[in-house]
Amino acid sequence: MLKIQNLHAYYGKSHVLHGVDFEVRSGEIVALLGRNGSGRSTTAKAIMGLVDCEGSVRWKDQEIVGRKAYEVAHLGLGYVPESRDIFPTLTVHQNLLLGQKGAGKGSRWGFDDMYAMFPRLKERQHTEAGVLSGGEQQMLTLCRTLMGDPDLIIIDEPTEGLAPKIVELVAE
To answer: What CA–CA distances, in Å, run from 138 to 56, 82, 83, 116, 166?
Structure first.
């Protein structure tokens, strides 16, 4: 599904990724491990077209290096950033609506699925997202990404701010 070869990434003139190679096949769960500053987040951002990079990122046999982030997302790659990037003045429900692919028809994921998975979001569906706790914002970002019906999800720091019980749910 996703094949990374000789990936280099840059922040301005700073060369921060040096020849990363790995592959993710259908049905696999892959984790990038390393200490702070080792390039995990930069790798995710490079795949999604959010940082300058060179090398090869192939998604379903298409080269995607150089594409805009929204184009990559339209191809079926979902991204949950470490920074969460919720829309703070919109409600939980409105944030989910923004993640919905098309009119939501034919999607594997809908509002009922999200609220069943994370009942706390259902309780707070009319609340502005900016007042949610960090863990609730993480749940919201994950759900918003699922609403886009991606074929693969890249999650940067998937358990950041989540209670241990919710961590188990995310792992499932």
So the answer is: 30, 8, 9, 16, 10
pLDDT above 70: residue 103: no
Q: How many CB atoms lie within 10 A of CB 86?
A: 20
| Amino acid code (one letter) for 151 | D
Two tokens, residue 169:
């749910």
Please state, in angstroms and rounded to a whole number, the distance separating the CA atoms of residues 139 and 162.
8
Fold observed for domain 77-172? Rossmann fold (3.40.50)
Is residue 96 within 8 A of residue 143, CB to CB? The reply is yes
The CATH number fitting domain 2-75, selected from 3.90.190.20, 3.40.50.300, 3.90.230.10, 3.30.70.100: 3.40.50.300
The answer to whether 144 touches 99, Cβ cutoff 8 Å, is yes
| CA gap 160, 36 in Å, rounded | 14
Percent with pLDDT over 70 in the chain:
92
Give the angle 74-80-86 at the CA atoms, nearest 5°: 95
Neighbouring residues of 134: CB distance < 8 A, sequence distance ≥ 6:
84, 160, 161
Among candidates 46, 44, 39, which has minimal Cα distance to 66? 46
In this prediction, residues 12-17 reach a mean pLDDT of 93
> Using 50, 70 and 90 to split pLDDT, how confident is the model at 14?
very high
